[in-house]
Amino acid sequence: MEISGVHKNTKLLIDNALYNVDEAEFVKPGKGRAIYRLKLRNLRTGAIVDHTYHSGEKVDEARTTNEDEQYLYREGHQYVFMNTETFEQRYVPEELLAEKRGLLKEGMVVTMLLMNDEPIDIALPTFVELKVVQTEVGTKTATITPQMKAAIMETGVSIGVPSFIKEGDILKVDTRTGTYVERINKK
Hints:
Low-confidence stretches: none
Helix content: under 10%
Number of domains: 3
Largest sheet: 5 strands, antiparallel
Number of strands: 15
Order of helices and strands: EEEEEEEEHEEEEEEE
CATH architecture of the largest domain: Roll
Structural class: mainly beta
Shape: flat
Distance between the termini: 54 Å
Strand order of the largest sheet: 4-3-2-1-5
Mean pLDDT: 86
Strand content: over 45%
């Protein structure tokens, strides 16, 4: 594929490593050929690298597929997912999930990125509802700025929440940032 066809979220194979294009910038100098500056994220290690190409250069686009997979359970250092169409189970090492595993809830459906039938990355839903299992007692002090405290969610992840949140509350959490969005009252 020619470099001019590369855009954000294109998957490239460079030196047998799979990269996601996080940013693609086109620069046309006064003289010479156009330049493409790419910010690439290694999908195995998470490392960010910058790479510059000239117009007309060729790159290898990786052939990837996306599948909806349901998270079933954890088995040692592996997470077990099931394809929602074929019901085949797939084992994913915890290193691949990194910080996402703190927001992963049993029964949740995620989008799994595969290359040659091997899991490369997972995309969580944008928001997830989690129950607070432990938090500090909020103090009733009058302040102008909202006070935050730590809360441990049912998945074991700790997030900052407003002082009025108590144990047993169901919270909406943004999976992109890992932050509190709102309290959801389910009765």
